[in-house]
Amino acid sequence: MIPHPVMVGFCNGLGVVIGLAQFNIFKVAGTGDNNHDRRLSEIGGAFLPFTNGTDWCDATMGLWMAFHIGVTLLTYVMFPKITKAIPASLAGIIMSTVVEWAFVRQIGYETNTVADLASVAGAFPSPVWFDTRYGYKDMMPPLTLKTFGEVLPTAITAGAIGLLESLLTLQLIDELTNTKGNGNREAFGQGLGQFLSGAFGGMGGCTTIGQSLMNIHSGGSTRLSSSVAATFMLLIILVAYPLINRIPVASLAGVMFIVTYFTIEWGSFKIVLAALLPEKVREKRGIYTKVKRSDCIIMLIVVAVTLIFDLAIAVAVGIVCAALVFTWDSTSLIKMERAVSPEGDKVFYTISGALFFGSVKPLMSLFPDPRSEPKDVTVIFENSEIHDWSGMVAIKALHERFENNGATSIVFEKLSVSSHKLMMKSKQLWEGINYYHEEKMDVAADPEITSHMHVESRR
Predict the structure, then answer these.
(1) Can you tell me the distance from the alpha carbon of 57 to that of 207, in angstroms, rounded to the nearest whole number?
(2) 38-52, 191-205, 350-364, 430-444: which range is least confident on average?
(3) Could you tell me the pTM of the whole model?
(4) Helix H or strand E segment including 303
(5) pLDDT at site 161
(6) For the CA atoms of 10, 13, 15, 19, what is the dihedral angle to 10 degrees?
(7) Integer distance in angstroms from the first to the last C-alpha of the chain?
(8) How far apart are CA 69 and CA 255, in angstroms?
(9) For residues 220-243, average pLDDT
(10) 235/152 Cα distance (integer angstroms)
(11) For residue 104, how many other CB atoms are within 10 A of its CB?
(12) Is-contact 376 342, C-beta < 8 A?
């Protein structure tokens, strides 16, 4: 149900958001508005590292952090040539940590580590209703309708965003691994996880495309990989936090830049370029990657809305735009062919294309002035389908147009099975219109019946 331009825009927008967020490491914690509370949906939130007024770190610190990012990226590229026993991203973090403590700090410099921002040490969680360690028990609001009303809008928005990103990530992973995931199971699992996380004082979350791609590129292609990740995260919080606290933050940013690289659909840039170039230039340069310009525009709209608002709004806007473009294009696909009998006393109009609210007006404009036409009229729905109420009303409007201009016989033929069924359900609305002879056909019992039912022979 998600158009491919929307999917590509989703990946590109998310990749840019992830990349921009890494510039926070070059900010001085505790200055400006660095510690302000982010709202769920914030205009321009993707550019917050550049607009929050927080002081930038000094040049020396910035250069050493850039050096750590370079070490992490270089290790990620080179390490798989030595061995694949350890994921390249993990090797990059280890190498950067060794460089920080064995080289950078030994010559009198240092960069921020995880402990400088916030220690990952913690204790085994307990239900918030009984927690006394962090004071959750006293902080819990009363379970009243007022509390429910205050929480519900945020819960719906957060749930929609999380579910949307999870299902889009599932679709992308299915394509990469040539598998078929179960969206219903993912949604149920995520909902159960959200409930348990909140019950134990944790944050809500969802499937993240960045971590999923890193997981796939590190060789984790089964559900065991996510279970192992969760288990190791718990062990880190309870036991291994002294080691994690020593990791340079810049090395983690380097890993996230790798995630950015794999998230963005770089091939889409060639597609946009081809859409901008005229046909002669594309042929001269051998560029054959052009798709419809409207698809490129939809993709760019999704990227822009992602950067300005958030992913959920961007995907919704992209789907609406794609639907409008499809509707507009479909109106031009309705066709009508006219034929007159050798005697000149009968006229046949053959309609092809989807008949729905968007194509009704173009269809009506295709018919000539009925006053100068033969009075025995047959309208044939060849390769045509009636999709909605507007399409049914169009049949009635055509009948009235011919009848009011002296037509003596008006017949509508070859309605498809689904169109025939649609008309039958509302036949009282079309009384007096001779659009078919009812025929009893058992499609299930007779496989020879084609998808189009000839409901009345030509007269």
Answers:
(1) 32
(2) 430-444
(3) 0.80
(4) helix 293-308
(5) 80
(6) -160
(7) 43
(8) 8
(9) 87
(10) 33
(11) 17
(12) no
